[in-house]
């Protein structure tokens, strides 16, 4: 197509599917990239969020050797695995000095401040607490929430990909589309939104087939129950009440504004949010003096 490809990007575990790449798959990808002189950017942001003991995560950095060390770059951060996205802390591992120098120059404008670096260093040094306390509790909660969500989806008769990592389930809502188009996918997305449930439509992830959605399950049980009660309404109305009326479990989140949304729909949504902000007395009730 006339496009010069420079790099291969791998997200492991994968988002939104939740796939975990095997060592052989990783090796094949890296060997492929070496043959074509491609850089490989490996994002392992969910590496500690593999919540099922039957699944095994393999880091690229755990391989015996990298086929092309100068073109292999690995990223990780604490925003997902430690649920502190507001800290904005990430790491880059690379043996390529030119890449390291380029990223270091960017840190003049987007660096991590000293106090944050100090606190994160203290956190990551406490291996015993991370391994024996935090990860065990986090994995148990993620697994329980995932089991709850997927069991309810089975009851509702909605197909999905069953994976063991990440915070999301890739769900097949194609049977609820009146026509197999991305326009109809957006209409379904809006119907869920009208019921106060926010999902990620497949178009936002460059999905080639309309009707797939990503649902986030990493939340507390009472919120998941409320989310599924709301998500059940569009499904039941589309099946003329034939779907099971179970209390379901999903609190759904959106990765980005779907690219298939029309400007008018986005404008209406922004206008609604602005109107709600203007009509709210939250700012009046929560002044800076009260916070102080």
From TrEMBL:
The protein's UniProt keywords, in alphabetical order, are: Pyridoxal phosphate
Q: Which residues form a coiled coil?
A: none
Where do the Aminotransferase class I/classII large domain residues begin and end? Answer: 5-222
Write out the GO MF terms. pyridoxal phosphate binding; transaminase activity
Picking any one GO biological process from the record gives:
amino acid metabolic process
* Top-level taxonomic group: Eukaryota
Looking up Pfam families in the UniProt record yields: Aminotran_1_2 (PF00155)
Q: Which Gene3D superfamilies match?
A: Aspartate Aminotransferase, domain 1 (3.90.1150.10), Type I PLP-dependent aspartate aminotransferase-like (Major domain) (3.40.640.10)
PANTHER family noted in UniProt: 1-AMINOCYCLOPROPANE-1-CARBOXYLATE SYNTHASE-LIKE PROTEIN 1 (PTHR43795:SF17), BIFUNCTIONAL ASPARTATE AMINOTRANSFERASE AND GLUTAMATE/ASPARTATE-PREPHENATE AMINOTRANSFERASE-RELATED (PTHR43795)
* Name of protein: 1-aminocyclopropane-1-carboxylate synthase-like 1
Source organism of the structure: Phalacrocorax carbo
């Amino acid at each position: 197509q006339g496009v010069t490809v420079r790099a291969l990007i791998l997200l492991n575990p994968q988002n939104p599917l939740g796939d975990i790449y095997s060592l052989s798959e990783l090796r094949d990808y890296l060997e492929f990239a070496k043959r074509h002189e491609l850089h490989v950017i490996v994002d392992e942001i969910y590496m500690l969020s593999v919540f099922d003991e039957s699944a095994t995560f393999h880091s690229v950095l755990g391989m015996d050797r990298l086929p092309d060390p100068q073109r292999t770059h690995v990223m990780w951060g604490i925003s997902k695995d430690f649920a502190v996205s507001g800290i904005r802390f990430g790491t880059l591992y690379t043996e390529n000095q030119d890449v390291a120098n380029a990223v270091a120059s960017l840190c003049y404008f987007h660096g991590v401040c000293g106090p944050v670096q100090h606190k994160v260093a203290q956190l990551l040094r406490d291996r015993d607490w991370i391994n024996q306390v935090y990860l065990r509790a986090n994995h148990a909660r993620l697994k329980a929430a995932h089991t709850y969500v997927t069991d309810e989806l089975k009851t509702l008769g909605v197909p999905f990909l069953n994976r063991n990592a990440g915070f999301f389930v890739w769900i097949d809502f194609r049977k609820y589309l009146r026509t197999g188009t991305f326009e109809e996918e957006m209409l379904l997305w809006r119907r869920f939104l009208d019921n106060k449930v926010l999902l990620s439509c497949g178009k936002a992830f460059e999905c080639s087939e309309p009707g797939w959605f990503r649902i986030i399950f990493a939340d507390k049980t009472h919120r998941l129950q409320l989310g599924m009660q709301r998500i059940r309404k569009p499904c039941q109305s589309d099946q003329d009440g034939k779907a099971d009326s179970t209390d379901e479990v999903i609190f759904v989140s959106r990765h980005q504004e779907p690219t298939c949304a029309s400007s008018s729909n986005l404008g209406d949504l922004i206008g609604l949010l602005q109107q709600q902000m203007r009509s709210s007395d939250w700012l009046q009730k929560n002044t800076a003096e009260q916070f102080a």
